Amino acid sequence: MKAIIFDFDGVIHxxxxxxxxxxxxxxxxxxxxxxxxxxxNGNIFENKDLKKKxxxxxFKLQNEAFKYLKxxxxxxxxxxxxxxxxxxxxxxxxxxxxxNTYFQNNKFTHIFxxxxxxxxxxxxxxxxxxxxxxxxxNVNDCVFVTDTLGDILEGNKAGIKTIAVDFGFHxxxxxxxxxxxxxxxxxxxxxxEIEKM
Length: 197
Ligand SMILES: [Mg+2]
What we know:
The protein is an alpha/beta fold.
C-alpha cells in the first residue's frame, strides 16, 4: 500500500448535524434525517432534486460554520501515524475552500499531499483518475476510506478498494450494499486494516 485516499465528511470530521441543519434551513422541516442521508446514496451533484443554487447556498453557510470546527485529537494522531508511512490525499465533494480553512485553522496542512474537492471535479471517479495519473500510482497501491454508499459505488467504478466506516453518514446495512473491502467502526480500526493490507 502506498497511498490512502480519504473522504472528509463523516470520516475525518463528523459534519452530519451541521450539514443537516443547514439543509433544513434551505428545504424546510419536511427534509427528514433519513431523506437527507439518501442524498448520499449516489453522487450528490447528480441528484436531480438539488439545483445549483441549493448547492451554492449550502456551501456559503457551511463554509462559514467550518471556520469553527476543531479536529478530533485521536483522528489527528492516527493521521500523523499514517502520514509517516503513506502518501495521504483527500477526495471529497465538499469545497476545497472549506477544507483548506479547516486544516489551516487546525494547523494540520502538512498531512495531505493534495485535497481534491468540488472545484477540481464533481465526479469522484474523475478525481481518482486524475490522482492516479498525476502521482503515477497504480490503483492496487491505493485504498479509499469513506462513509457513504455513493462514495463506495464511485470507488468501485474507479476500481479502488474501499474501507467503509460506519460512524459517519451511513450505517453498516447501507454500506454493505456497495460491497466494500471492509467495514470498520473506529478510526483506530481504519489504521489497523490499512497496516494489514
Ligand atoms: Mg463522507
